[in-house]
Specification:
It is a single chain. The chain is an all-alpha fold. The protein has one domain (3-238). It has nine helices and no strands. Helix 1 (3-26) packs across helix 5, helix 5 packs across helix 6 (161-181) and helix 6 packs across helix 8 (195-219). The protein is globular and about 50 Å long.
């Protein structure tokens, strides 16, 4: 990596770090409306503590990702035609994921306690929280964790073209499961745990997780971020009152 490319890469990851800070701020109204914040914690204190936590966590995540990505054959930022190859597929995938999740919520999982009317924050809070989901979660789970797991597989197994595709999918499934598991603690602050609710959370987060992971390795990080943003907006804003 020459000095110019290195500077551009550092700038790119610094921008991602700043975006993650913004994302951490954007989710505060959503979690406050859900009542997850203790009553004794003011919004200003939550903002201060959340900023410190996000600055450290995502600073570390962005730094490690900066070091890891060049050690793999992943190219999350190299896109020749961003609109055609990255953004448009992200929008289409996001709309599709949003509709699938909406359909499953209205049919198979319609009896979920999380689907009870009134448990969801208002649309404006959902729209803000979508920034956190699309930026912070994709940086943490795809840019960092996906790259890390794939890097470890690459150290263990010598990739051929067929093995590479296999381990991309294995990595994708592992990270999608972790993505689903990561939503359990917040959900269990709102409802009583049950096998039905756990299955719902894992399925409704595993499906988008697999789609976002596929976009990440095939279309780049911005495609995964776009898809995640569009899917969250579909779920928390456009389809919420239907």
């Amino acid at each position: 990596m020459n000095s110019l490319t290195a500077r551009q890469s550092k700038k790119r990851f610094f921008i991602l770090w700043i975006l993650c800070l913004i994302g951490s701020w954007s989710v505060l109204p959503y979690i406050q409306y859900l009542g997850i914040l203790p009553p004794s914690v003011s919004i200003l204190r939550a903002l201060f503590l959340g900023t410190l936590q996000a600055a450290f966590l995502y600073g570390l995540v962005c730094y490690l990702s900066y070091k890891l990505v060049p050690k793999t054959d992943l190219h999350p930022f190299v896109i020749k035609n961003p609109l055609k190859q990255s953004i448009y597929p992200g929008i289409i995938s996001g709309v599709t994921v949003g509709l699938v999740i909406y359909f499953l919520n209205k049919t198979i999982f319609s009896s979920s306690l999380l689907a009870v009317e009134g448990i969801h924050p208002p649309a404006w809070a959902g729209a803000l929280a979508s920034l956190y989901g699309s930026i912070n979660e994709e940086v943490l789970l795809r840019l960092f964790l996906f790259t890390l797991v794939y890097f470890i597989f690459g150290k263990i197994v010598k990739f051929t073209s067929h093995k590479r595709l296999l381990f991309l999918w294995v990595t994708n499934i592992i990270v999608a499961i972790i993505f689903g598991l990561g939503h359990l603690p917040t959900a269990f602050k709102l409802i009583t745990p049950s096998s039905f609710e756990i299955a719902r959370i894992l399925i409704l987060n595993g499906i988008p997780g697999i789609v976002f992971g596929w976009l990440y390795w095939s279309r780049g990080l911005w495609s995964a971020i776009t898809a995640h943003l569009v899917a969250d907006l579909m779920i928390h804003v456009f389809l919420q009152e239907l």
